[in-house]
Amino acid sequence: MKKSKSYFPGWVWKGKPFILGGLFILFSLFSFRCLERPRLPSWDTEITIPLLNDSYSIADLLSFSNRFRITDDSVVQFYSEFNIDTITPQHFLNLLAQNCNLNLTIAQFQITSLSIGRLVLSLQEIVGPWLPESTIKTIIPSFTQSLDKFIDLPDIRHLELISGIWKFRIQNFTNLNFDSLTFYNPSFSYLRAIGIGANSTQMLEQRITDQSLENPIPIQIGISSPGSFPDSIYVSGLDSVVIELAIDSLRLSSGVLRLPQTSACNQTTINVNSDKRFRIDSLELADGEARLSFFNTLPTAIWLNLTIPCINYQATFRIEPQGSIIIPVSLVGLKLGCHKDMPLGGSPNEEMTIQVLVNLTSEPTYDFVTIEQDDGLIANYCLSNLKFQRIFGELLEPIYVSSPEKTLISFPGGQNSNIRVADARINLYLVNTIGFPAIVRFKTLARKENGDSISQFTEIAIQPGSCSQPSVKNLVFPITDVVNFGAREIKFSTAIRVFGGGRIEANSFARGNGCLSTPLKVAFACDTVVFGEYRFGLGEKDRKTLTDWQEGKYGIKVIDAQLYTDFSNHFPIGFDAWIVVSNDTDSSSLRSDSGRSLVIPCRVPAGIVDQTKKDKYCTSATDSNFVVGLSEEDISLFTNRALKSRLYLYFFTQDTVTIKPNDYLNFTSRAEIKLRVK
To answer: pTM of the full predicted structure?
Structure first.
């Protein structure tokens, strides 16, 4: 059998017992060595925890949101500008939109040309049947006759009359004289014609009201004649007396008829009023529209003639039956009234009115139509978007325009009780181009959180002005007491009282601006101010090291724990300071006894003040350092994942000092914890 090839030299295999033995001896020696007790390593570590590191200038310290100015003598001057809301005429005087409805019913239309009813009475019918139709010469004896007849009015079937005039025309086409003709109908009672001569004509009229008529019209006729005795006259049975009947100046509430041409007219006066008690002497409109709507409810077309005299407007429109039309008319440039400074025509104190004249003519109908009581023309006149260009008049009672409260100034920490300014002033600049006198009432108000408040009122009278010649008023007044009240913020508001008479232009206005200024020469009262919260937390490695120490693991011990705080104060005042470190979820205050916070007190001396100067101000900074040891309880606080630190400053009562723009407070604070791990 063939042997496999070896990859090792032969001498290796030949000395194998000796090699294995040597390896065994070496392994035994090392095994005994490892059975000795191991020694753990030991090292020191240091954890540095930044707590605070910041700098505050005077602007930061006082937390004013407005700007500061530097005076010529390098004193910081607080300067806060503000604006007073602009008042325009639209804030206190506007022209009201007007809406006027008009309903011209058929009762207001006048009908003048209804067709005439005709009745022919033959002489044979009047005298008697003995009279032949041929012409004869004979003596006619005296007689009286009564006839019951109907007169047909061809354009009428039924009428409900409001008013009208019966008109009779009596035509005598005979050679016979009549003493009288009497007509009787319940609608017009008795109507009598006297002394009707041969071959003559006579007219009779009678006004009727509130009658109901049906066609044909029944009529009772009484005839009286003296005859011709002793004379003989030529007569014929075909000779006649013709009676014509018409109704004129007719006004009806309803009916069935062939409607002739009718007419109606209306004059509507629309007042132009303001939304205030204001007597308008004259005005000119810068904008405005009259929107006139018409709806024809008659069964025939209407021709509408529309006239607005004050703007020289005239137009004619045709409105179909049951049709409508809307007519917009611009009122731009409309002038009403009269004033010595604005001659517009008319007389002084003329009413501010717009007249709308409507003349209607209906087209005749050739068929009978039914007219209902409410048929006619419905109209609506709307004046909208009225804006005056100028207006003259007098306010019959004052108008007040108020503006909402605005913040004039906010103070640090929610209040300013830590400082007292020596002098705070408001400088107001007012401009009035409204041609009415006005009084501006300026109010400043400071209110504390507990509800205590102080307010100050200042009234400024300002004369009428115009856009070309504005009336200007400047006033300076103190509000030191309000500023020093110690409130969270100071607010201001204005109220303007406009009164009297004058002129207003559309683009006129009243507005103003002002500023609150005070040099920062301040006195301090006892108070505490807290500066913002700084949130932080240790890294996971450092926090785990402290947690292991807290739990007694790995023999970790604290060698040293100190809190270092450095202040550099360039303010002319000193104060007590507290650095407070707590859990981020802890809401405990500076004076808390809950044990969940670390409170480090420090007394910070004032900067160096030159006492020889009249104005006490700081010339150089004072540096101070504080080192405080930390207890195990203090160190345990840093094992929290989220922490926060705060700086409290307590101001002592201090006489007036001067704050300079280069005043500042620098401060840093850190905790250093040295640990040993054995």
So the answer is: 0.58
